[in-house]
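=== RUN LOG ===
request id: a7f3
mode: sequence -> structure
chains: 1
length: 341
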Amino acid sequence: MNRYDVFLSVIYVLNGDLDHLQKTLTTTVQTLSQTVTDYEIVVVDNMTDKSKSILLLKKLTNDKNFPNLQVYILNKRIDENIASCIGLDKSLGDFVAILNPSLDDISFMPAMLDEAKKNFDIVIAYNKNKYIKSFFYRVARKGFNFLYRLLNKESIAEDIYPYRLFSRRVTNQILQNQYPEMILRHLPTSIGYTRKELNYSSEFETSPNINFLYSVKKGIKFLISTSGAPMRVVSILSIFGALMNIFYSIYILIIAFAKTEIAEGWITLSLQQSGMFFLISIFFFILSEYILEMKGFKKNEHSNYISQEFGSSVISRHNKINLKENDSPPSDNLNNNKIET
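=== RESULT ===
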């Protein structure tokens, strides 16, 4: 097995199934110590009931068999992709991998890292073993994919839990986005970096619990947050409504001059209504365009979700934390710039 001279960060988000966590971390430490020269394991506790998870995680960080383990306890249960972005924000590696501790196999990491070292910024592994999805979920998923492809001229990732490895510059790009969790969720289509897709086969420790209504809510949020198409539709409809009211006002004036027998007050009332709806249409047009321009100004503060953090009593990695050092200290640079006379 090749051992790469890189600093690798592995992120696990805990949503349940603590029974297999210690076994998973043991395998992770064994694999990473044989694969890379430096590594860290970032665990984000996203459990609903943290009474057991905190005790277990503190026990593991005090165990010398689990070096380079960093733990972040969230103050409440949040979306898994937001929790993953918190792990991204706290990671320091040259390459960062996000795994589901119940679904993804860390033993496939050397193959993914081998592809990443071939100048692929994003490496995604899909498990050939598929978990069972309900009929309504599959139908809704296909409908959403069709709508997204229609509005944005591109497809989105089919797998809800892709096993992902990406470079530091991709990590930085994700975190700079207004909705990093949405970019992370649909990474294959949302960022224009080189990518490699791999397939592997591994049995699941547990099957994911998919909430249909929650998935619908996330789909709508993703469509709105990653595309200006919905607001652009509002703008088009607003302009269309404004034009129709102008045409209707012209029609009223034509009737007023062409007809002699007109109900009393009809002209005044109709002009008032068309003028009012014209102003409402213009208001929605301005509002939708303003929202499109303002997108990107707001950014989630992931640090607000963290209530506790602690790390391993043993840190074995070298002092490489993605900080570029100058070749010489500032004083030397000043001395080199002196002019000899």
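=== NOTES ===
Residues 324-341 have pLDDT under 50 and may be disordered.
The chain has two domains: 4-227+299-311, 229-294.
=== END ===
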